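Dear colleague,

As promised, here are the two records you asked about, laid out in our usual form so they can be pasted straight into your sheet.

NAME FIELD: protein one
SEQUENCE, THEN STRUCTURE:
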Amino acid sequence: MAELVVYEGFQALAEKKADNYVVTSPLTNKAVELERGVDFDVINGTKQPSLLKPGAEKIVSAYGLLVHYAIESEIENEIVETVDRNGEVQRKPIFFYNVKCELVKVANNGTEYVFSSGYGSANTSEKRNGWNSPYDSANATLKMAQKRALVQAALSVSGLSSLFSQDIENESFMAKFDELNNAVKSGTITQKQGKLIFATAANIGISPTKLKAKLKDWGYDDVKKIPQSDIDEVLQKINSLKEE
């Protein structure tokens, strides 16, 4: 698959039509009408309209492009420990997906050219999942990551980011993206797991200073660099300090 740089000349023409927009692709001269409340909408607490999945699909169609998805990184059924307000440790699985969306043009000779790409992530800890269990939400989470990647790619290829923003119905996932994605790549503990380590020590009267000294004795100069594979062993060692 070949890469193709997207130039400003590919920017779509958007014309206001009552409450809607008519978007015309300069590549195909095909026009599509984006409907307010269906293809785009203003999310509560924001001023700029957000492009929704149906609208992104219409833009991609107007450009005559195909959509390819690929999972760049993922966490599936990883047990995450948190401390609730009562100081009790809660264990629950998490599913996380970082997806790449490529918008592809197929040439007459069959060669595929990437016109644009976008990334989207989602995880089962997002508030949108409500009371659903992570297992019930895993498939929907993958689809949400794909949707977010598609919207970003559609905005990129059309040059309409000044008119529409990416769907921000829930920004909390963005705050967790770097942490979760870096944990996948590096194999180190997440920020929440780091907090769990200090909370476990505090519950048995171990100060942060003393804990850091103990961690260094155990071979960990930085709590952020503790491998995922060592988290249970570290917690057991901390709990054993209570007996001392």
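NAME FIELD: protein two
SEQUENCE, THEN STRUCTURE:
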Amino acid sequence: MAKYVRPVAKRVTDLPLPEDSYFQAIQDLFERLKGVDQVLVDPEITTVRLVTNPEKVVLKETQRAFMYFCLYKMNIDGIIMNRILPETVTDTYFSNWIKGQQHNLAQAAEFFDPVPIFPVPLFSGEVIGHDYLRDLSDQIYAGRNPLERFYKQEPYQLVKDGGSYRLKLKLPFISKEDVELSKIYDELVVRIGGYKRHILLPRQVASLGSVTAKMEGEHLNIVFEGDDHGREKK
């Protein structure tokens, strides 16, 4: 279309239209990217390791990223928990900070379970240069092979089905009567007796106000639909 419109357009306007080379460059880019999506969602080839800090706001964003990766079927096999204040810090100035980190670490373990968490202490300087990077690697992997897959299953299965989304949780040895669900804004709370898990939902899922759930075997299937824009549901 541009090839035929370009000569006419030049007579009536100074607005330039893209040359053929522009469209060819786009086509070349698509050709180069073809198949990349298949590589990213193949857990035998690609895994994701999220890096976060034991701070409330940072963890919230990591939780949201976690669910987005689940939505796009990418395998998450580890969480790197960075900048943890080391035990050698005993100054009372940091006491509240340490307590806050411990609380957030406990919440992170609850949320990301069973995906393993790799704790990394706060370094005394910026991690720049070979020596610091080697020390960082030693802290994260502690002699393990970084190319190993540390978790091979899907912690969640979140799929889009038309205008709704379906979240599938593996909950063996329980019945529907044991489960209590609450959706509060962008967070789904799953309670099973004294056990509680907070699942931060992607924004397009959180905006759907209707939530229904059904036990099928050892899996709990939760369906989000409607257009109530995140109104609290129980």
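A couple of things worth noting about protein two: Strands lie at 48-52, 76-84, 117-121, 157-161, 164-170, 179-184, 187-192, 195-200, 210-216, 219-225. DSSP finds seven helices and ten strands in the chain.

Best,
R.
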